[in-house]
């Protein structure tokens, strides 16, 4: 299974928003610049997070993004689903019914064993992502970073965080 760059970028952007003071947000351009990624693509990921209710957006001169919920309420699965969708990664097309020795539809009385195995693995994958919150990640960053790095990040946030006008989802 390959997860798109958009999931990585969205997760990093959301993690940056943990440190925002009340009433302030980050512009898509600032997040894109910080991570050295294309602004249009970062904006696309932020729009998906907004549509999923993970971030709030505010438009205009005083526009930007901030978390719509507490970091303890947002999981890596929420972010992944917002970007990739909630549908299954594996889609069985019943090819066991194809070819010269294909099974007749009436003989396929149990689910395809391959599809069932992928479903079990995907459920474990999703459960694993559901167990990790943005708050968990934030605590790991704080624990693993040097004081100098944390001060640099907080300084950057202080410079780039903009006061938000009314927010919209």
From TrEMBL:
Pfam families: Rrf2
Annotated PROSITE patterns: HTH_RRF2_1, HTH_RRF2_2
SUPFAM superfamilies xrefs: Winged helix' DNA-binding domain
Cited Gene3D superfamilies: Winged helix-like DNA-binding domain superfamily/Winged helix DNA-binding domain (1.10.10.10)
MF term (GO), any: DNA-binding transcription factor activity
UniProt GO cellular component terms: cytosol
Coiled coil location: none
InterPro entries associated with the record: TR_Rrf2-type_CS, Tscrpt_reg_Rrf2, WH-like_DNA-bd_sf, WH_DNA-bd_sf
PANTHER family in the cross-refs: TRANSCRIPTIONAL REGULATOR-RELATED (PTHR33221:SF13), WINGED HELIX-TURN-HELIX TRANSCRIPTIONAL REGULATOR, RRF2 FAMILY (PTHR33221)
Protein name: Rrf2 family transcriptional regulator
Species of provenance: Parasphingorhabdus halotolerans
């Amino acid at each position: 299974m390959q997860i798109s760059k958009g999931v990585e970028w969205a997760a990093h952007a959301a993690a940056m928003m943990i440190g925002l003071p009340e009433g302030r947000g980050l512009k898509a351009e600032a997040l894109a610049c910080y991570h050295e990624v294309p602004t249009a693509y970062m904006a696309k990921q932020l729009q998906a997070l907004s549509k999923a209710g993970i971030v709030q957006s505010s438009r205009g001169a005083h526009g930007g993004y901030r978390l719509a919920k507490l970091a303890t309420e947002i999981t890596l699965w929420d972010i992944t689903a917002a970007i990739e969708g909630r549908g299954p990664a594996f889609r069985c097309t019943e090819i066991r019914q194809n070819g010269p020795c294909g099974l007749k539809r009436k003989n396929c009385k149990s689910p395809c064993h391959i599809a069932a195995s992928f479903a079990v693995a995907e459920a474990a994958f999703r459960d694993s992502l559901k167990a990790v919150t943005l708050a968990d990640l934030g605590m790991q960053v704080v624990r693993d970073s040097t004081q100098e790095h944390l001060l640099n990040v907080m300084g950057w946030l202080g410079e780039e965080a903009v006061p938000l006008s009314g927010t919209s989802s």
